[in-house]
Amino acid sequence: MRRTLLTTNVAASAAVKTTTTTTIINAITLISLVIIFSSLIISPNTVNCSSPASDDKSLHLNATLSHTSREQNLKDEQIHGNVRCKCLCPTPPLDRSLPVDISQPRRHLYVRNTSPEECKCDNVVLPHLSRDIRMNHLTEFCNKCECKYQSRNTTTIRWFVIFALIIVSAMSLYMIVTTSTKLGGIAYESWPSEANGVQPNVVNHNHMQQGQLWQNTQMAISRTKFGGASAWLCLIVIGVVAGAVASVIDIATGWMKDLREGICQGAFYLNREQCCWSLNDTIFEGAHCSKWTTWPQLLGITPDHSFIDYFMSFLTYILSSLLFAGLAALLVKRFAPHARGSGIPEVKTILSGFVIKGYLSKWTFIVKSICMVLVVAAGLSLGKEGPFVHIVCCIGNIVSHFFPRYARNDAKRREILSASSAAGVSVAFGAPIGGVLFSLEEVSYYFPLKTLWRSFFCALVAAFVLRSINPFSNEHMVMFYVDYTRPWILFELVPFALLGAFGGIIGSMFIKFNVRWCYIRKTSILSQYPVMEILAIALITSFIGYHNEFTRMNSSELIKLLFTPCGVADVSMLCDYQRNLTEKVSFNRIFIAEAGPGVYKSLFFLTLALIFKFVITIFTFGLAIPTGLFIPAMTMGAITGRIIGVAMEQIAFNYPDLWIFQNACSTGENCMTPGLYAMVGAAATLSGVTRMTVSLVVIMFELTGNADFIVPVMVAVMFSKWVGDAFGRQSIYDAHIYLNDYPCLDPEEKFNAANSASTMQLERVAEET
Fold it and tell me: What is the β-pairing status of strands 107-113 and 262-264?
């Protein structure tokens, strides 16, 4: 008895001694977080420059940087050269005798300057204009210039603060593990047992002492605030690691996608944007870069759009796709079979209480992270957003095993996994709030209030670290930023509802066809040759998709293009409108115009792209490689929405006297925004496939950064959910759970509440008859 009490006192004393150290560590961690958030909010690396215009519209374009430490910035940039100027320029008339209308909408053109002393827009290269027009007229077009200045010192400070945060978290983790192990060891050593010579007649008394001892030890640990601090430190570590891993994956994916087309001279490790960062002859949206060399150019073939040039580009495109896809398939088959698929169905199963051994292991995490880069760069019809949830859950499972409170308790660890799934969506889309709602609505079965708050915190840390580490992100914090100048009108709720119904139909069709094909794959000889099947799908995707501009480009870039409204300076075929550039109008008014031949040609290729994406994604989702479905589903919906949006726009142009257009379009303004229809269609199709509602609306809001169009998205999602449920209530993830025979408790499934009495009565009636 005296030994037990002495041990309890020693344990309590050891725990109390660590209280001061733990408080200091928590304070340092909090201060580090505050410093990081302050460095993001008070960002000294963004400098504005202005271009004052005179009354006669003559524009002075040599804008001067305004900054308190301008001299030091100039000194830094003379060494590093990292300034990005944004010029807003309209399209000049091809006929030089016509006046230039500088009041037309501008397109953002980015020029890399080696010196920030002057932000000049007179050297912008517009590829669709002849050289004489550019040289003689371009200085009259660009009436606004903005600079984005990125200081190397600021980046260094952020890296240092993030590194300090990681060190502090590691120190706290080490102290928690060490202290908990010592206390647990003292307690367990003091427990009596028969092996140590305890007589059987005192076993009950010893059990009472054990319970009292363990209670005292737990109280001592709780007094050190380890009970609450360990959870927050665990979430901080998960968020930091998730953000860092997502940054590496994003940068590696961008580099490997550009590697399929060419290489940077003298710096093969840079992608196209990084390679052309400091060149003045490069615009952000174009391909004019003297340092970037395509693979046909390396072979001595002149890029003159000849058959040989086209064939060599086509051949390298196919070979690179086969190489990346085949390497990913071999890695998954050899090292981590659990790295295949999306991972969301299995995460839902694990969070429901079922154990899948090895599914959240370190090998699964490593292999899936590498293979996700390979399959996205291969150009397959899949995304990396779904696998991000699986990867971050692997991170959460690995980190939680360093904390005894979660390593020994599966129920507590599932709370960490719920927060990890929210962080996965947060780093995938840059949508922390949507990630929390996704975890609540889609993957978690048990979601108490404390898990909600912890999920929000983990998603916030992950999104912040991703934003801070990635140095080549755009000036917006959202993935598909839109800036629509015209509000939607009440009549447009009808086509929005039709888009929602179409999303529900195409989503239900996709679920049925994909599940059927996955069942055939699982029960046929195809299951014995997964690598050959992946190579065949990669060959078909690259061979057919290369010849269509909209299937050859990356899916995220295609979605961004479809979301973006057309301006008069856009060179895409989607924006080939016959506009009158001689009329003087106000800056914020875009007059409606007739669609040119390029628009109709684009609609034809978009229709082919929609059919191809739908068919090839059915065969791609479920392969033995990491496969995500968010981006392919959004792509199909965005294509459909853009087609319907252009149709509505041309109806308003050709029939302006209809009663539905008289109030909104009577002045000739463009009252229809095809990009808005693309955004609504993307949300509708994604809802039809995943059956998400509230979380999807919030994710779309965070993706686009525009809250004015939440109502159209809500209408489309609601109709998509209704129509989809009419064909089947299962989402694609629930369907794959049943396909793989995972144990699952479906909250929407109805069970017959039959009792023994009713069963006996039925048997008796059967016997009497």
Answer: unpaired
**3-state secondary structure (DSSP) of residue 63:** strand
- pLDDT per residue as tens digits for the range 545-585: 999 989 998 888 899 889 888 766 566 788 777 765 544 44
Cα–Cα–Cα angle for 489, 600, 645, rounded to 5 degrees: 15
> Furthest-apart CA pair in the chain: how many Å?
111
Residues 680 and 713: beta-carbon distance below 8 Å: yes
Pairwise CA distance, residues 267 & 396, whole Å: 36
Dihedral pair phi/psi, residue 591, rounded to 5°: -80, 145
pLDDT digits (tens, 9 = 90+) for 363-395: 999 999 999 999 999 989 998 888 999 999 999
pTM of the model: 0.74
Tell me if 129 sits within 8 A of 610, measured CB to CB: no
- Give pairs for 44-50: CB < 8 Å, separation 24+: 44/151, 44/154, 45/149, 45/150, 45/151, 45/154, 45/155, 46/148, 46/149, 46/475, 47/73, 47/116, 47/147, 47/148, 47/149, 48/146, 48/147, 49/85, 49/119, 49/145, 49/146, 49/147, 50/145
* Strands of the sheet with 107-113, listed across from one edge: 107-113, 83-89, 145-149
Going from the C-alpha of 153 to that of each of 41, 161, 564, 729, the distances in angstroms are 16, 12, 34, 54
For 106, list phi and psi in degrees, rounded to 5.
-105, 155
| Residue 443, number of CB atoms within 10 A of its CB | 25
- At residue 68, the 3 state secondary structure works out as coil
